[in-house]
Amino acid sequence: MRLFVGTFTPLTNYRQIKEDFSFLQGRWVPERNLHLTLLFLGEVRVVESIRYRLSALRYDPIQLSIEGLGFFGSPPRILFARVDPTPLEPIHTQLCHLLDRKPDRPFRPHITLARIRQCTRRQSLLDGIRNYEGRTLGTFQLRISLIESQLTPKGPIYTPLATF
User: Fold this and answer.
1) How confident is the model at residue 80 (pLDDT cuts 50, 70, 90)?
2) What whole-number distance in Å separates Cα of residue 6 and Cα of residue 35?
3) What is the largest CA-CA distance in the chain?
4) How confident is the model over 2-50, as pLDDT tens digits?
5) d(Cα 59, Cα 104) in Å, to the nearest integer?
6) Domain range for residue 138?
7) 162 φ, ψ (degrees, to nearest 5)
8) pLDDT at 99
9) Secondary structure of the chain in the HEC alphabet?
10) Can you give the pLDDT at residue 103?
11) Cα dihedral sign for 24, 131, 38, 47?
C-alpha cells in the first residue's frame, strides 16, 4: 500500500490560477486531491504499525496560510502553492523520528497544483508567479492524516486511513 502523511488543503483561487496558467501543458491536480505532504512513506506492508506509531504524534492546532506560487525543476515540472515551513518543520522532524525515517531531501512544504509536461512560455510562467507573490491563496487548519495513494491511469485516488 502506497502511503503518505499529510493534510488536505482548500485553495480559494484555484480556478483563477488554472485560468492564469492555462498555457501550461500538463495535468492539473483535481481540486479534491489538493494536499500538503508532510512525509512520504512509499510502499508499506504493515499499516497498523504505522498507525500505532503515529498515534504518539503531538502538535498544537495550527492555522496555516497558502501564499504565492513557485515551481520545481529545470525545465519546470511542478507548479505549486507555497506554505510557510516554519511551523511545520518541528512536526516533520517528529514524524521522521516516530517512523524511523531519515529525510532524503530538504523539507519544502508545498501543494502541487500541476505536473508540467512542457513549458514553452517560460517568461509567462515567471510573470504569472510574480503576479501571485504575497497573495494569500487560502488558509486551513492543520489536520494530519495517514493517507493511501492508489495510482490509477486517471490519476491518484487518495483515501484517508486515520487522522491524528
Assistant:
1) very high
2) 7
3) 48
4) 999 999 999 989 999 999 999 999 999 999 999 999 999 999 999 999 9
5) 23
6) 2-163
7) -165, 150
8) 97
9) CEEEEEEECCCCCHHHHHHHCCCCEEEECCHHHCEEEEEEEEECCCHHHHHHHHCCCCCCCCEEEEEEEEEECCCCCEEEEEECCCCCHHHHHHHHHHCCCCCCCCCCCEEEEEEEEECCCHHHHHHHHHHCCCCEEEEEECCCEEEEEECCCCCCEEEEEEEC
10) 83
11) negative
**What per-residue confidence (pLDDT) applies to 104?**
81
Q: What is the CATH number of the domain that holds 117?
A: 3.90.1140.10
Distance between CA atoms of 79 and 69, rounded to whole angstroms? 7
Total domains present in the chain? 1
Q: How many whole angstroms from its chain centre is CA 7?
A: 8
Which residues, other chains included, contact 124 with Cβ-Cβ below 8 Å and sequence gap of 6+? 23
| pTM confidence score | 0.92
> CB count, 10 Å around CB of 122?
12
Q: Give tens-digit pLDDT for 90-99.
A: 999 999 999 9
